[in-house]
Each structure stands twice: as C-alpha cells, then as structure tokens.
Specification:
With 222 residues, the chain is α/β, with parallel strands linked by helices. It has seven helices and eleven strands. It comes from Komagataeibacter europaeus.
C-alpha cells in the first residue's frame, strides 16, 4: 500500500480499529474479516452505528454472494476476496477514495481499449464490448499487469482462487473468445501469446492509465 502511494496506519485488533476510526478522519479503512477479538463485520457495524463516515473496504476469504451482501448491507464500500493481486487491491482502494470524494472513475487503457474498474464496462473506440464475467476478469488482470507475462496458473488463481479449479486449458478457451470479441471491436492485436509461458497484453501507445491521487491518501488497515 505504501508503494502504491498511501500513508498507512495499522492495528491488529477490532477494538483498536474502532478507537482509530472514531478518533481520526481517514480517507479509507481496509478491514480484515478475521480479527482476533471482534470480527471485521462487527467493526464495520459499530462504526456505522456511531456515524463514522470513513469509506470501508472489506478483505475476506468468503466468496459466497451472501457474504458480500452482508458486508454491503452494513455499510461496506467495496469487498475484495483472497487471494488477490496487490495491484488490483491498490486500484480498488483508489476507486473507493475517488468515489467518496466525487472524482471520476478510474480507467485502465490500452490503445483504444478502456476498462472502467467502477462500472466494469469495457469499450473500444467508445463502443461497448459485452464480456462474460470470466472474460472481464481476465482482461482486467491483463490490464492491471500490462507488459508482464502472466502464466495460466496466475489466471486460474485470479478466476477461481484455488477453489474448484478446472483444467488449465480452459484459460486458452477464455483467451480465444476474448480475443475474438476484441478483434470484432477493433482491438484484436493487444493480447499476445508467449509460447511456453502464458499471455501478455502490450500497448505501444503509452503507460497504464490508473491515475492515483496527487496527495497521499491516509489509510487505516485492520
């Protein structure tokens, strides 16, 4: 998080977390569900009952939709499941902070391809590209790690998190379908195969456009 440009305060218990949230005005709180005394959901519930306005991102290993519903219903602003890519976590933290301050949504770009982390929309030349959930997740990871070769294991981990993973060849199927949709939209040359290693998304047009806040954001991690 510090490498991502945040100033971070960290405590280990739910009671300490509540004290910090009530005493200081943070730009964001990242709360782990697994705390030794009070779980993260209870920290969130109590802080919202005390009218603490700090945006909250929940970290959890629970992938079930009901866990996410529970988090959002008691006041979470985002929910990230383990395992996660560090760059994805930083991008989502930036997105929550930007939304809370009324800034425009962050966008990942490669040439004429744009992906919104907030709305999960993908466009090429301004036209929407309709992707399945898995296709979107693959493209999001490729954009977050633009210029880096990603193995099929990395994609499987991102898509399934070690739970009920299918055979590795399913990644080739997803990539093939994603490429066809991007090609039809006019961006079919972005994803390259690196034989024996995996896939990479390259952009000759410039750097990845995830714009961080100009000033360091104050983040509390519990």
């Amino acid at each position: 998080m510090e490498k991502g440009g945040f100033t971070v305060d960290h405590v280990d218990t739910g009671h300490d977390a509540l004290g910090m949230l009530k005493s200081y005005n943070y730009d964001l709180a990242v709360i782990d569900v697994r705390l030794p005394d009070v779980d993260g959901y209870e920290v969130l519930r109590i802080s919202r009952a005390a009218r603490v306005p700090t945006p909250v991102l929940i970290l959890s290993e629970e992938r079930a939709s009901m866990a996410k519903v529970k988090a959002f219903s008691i006041g979470a602003d985002d929910y990230v499941t383990r395992p996660y890519e560090s760059m994805e976590l930083v991008a989502r933290m930036q997105a929550v902070i930007r939304r809370s301050k009324g800034y425009s949504e962050p966008t990942l770009r490669a040439g004429e391809l744009e992906l919104s982390l907030d709305s999960r929309e993908v466009t090429v030349h301004g036209q929407n590209v309709h992707l399945t959930g898995k296709e979107y997740m693959i493209l999001e990871l490729l954009l977050l790690r633009k210029g880096m070769v990603l193995t099929k294991d990395a994609f499987l981990n991102h898509l399934y998190g070690g739970m009920d993973e299918p055979e590795m060849k399913i990644i080739d199927v997803f990539i093939c379908k994603l490429r066809k949709k991007l090609q039809v939209a006019g961006a079919g040359q972005l994803i390259s195969t690196v034989w024996g290693q995996g896939y990479v998304l390259r952009d000759e047009g410039g750097p990845l456009a995830v714009t961080p806040e100009r000033a360091k954001a104050q983040v509390a991690v519990f």
